[in-house]
Amino acid sequence: MIKINIDEILKDKGKTVYWLAKELKCNYNNINKLVKGETDSIKFDMLENIANMLECNISDILHIEKDAK
């Protein structure tokens, strides 16, 4: 399972999802769904743009969580 950490990074930087959507010139609802983990895909260029806006690495945004068995 892939965990998306955008909300944590935004909080650390004192920014909001609205700010990110505005900076990326994207629809707020689409970015909000991504932040909440309610989407199944993301384009690589969008992921790169998010990392650039948040001044972080893609690996800071996405983490693979292994299922406990």
Question: Can you give a write-up of this model?
Answer:
The two termini are 13 Å apart. It is built from five helices and two strands; from the N terminus they run E-H-H-H-H-H-E. The longest helix is centred in the last third of the chain and has 11 residues, at 44-54. The chain has helices spanning 6-13, 17-24, 28-35, 44-54, 58-61; strands at residues 2-4, 62-64. The protein is globular. By secondary structure, it is mainly alpha-helical. Helix 2 packs across helix 3 (28-35).
Helix content: 55-70%
Tell me the distance between the termini.
Answer: 13 Å
Overall average residue pLDDT:
93
Helical run tally: 5
Structural class: mainly alpha
**DSSP E strands, number:** 2
Please write the string of helix (H) and strand (E) elements: EHHHHHE
Low-confidence stretches: none
- Rg over CA atoms, rounded to whole Å, is 12 Å
How do the strands line up in the largest sheet? 1-2
Largest sheet: 2 strands, antiparallel
Described by the principal axes of the CA atoms, the overall outline is globular
What fraction strand? 5-15%
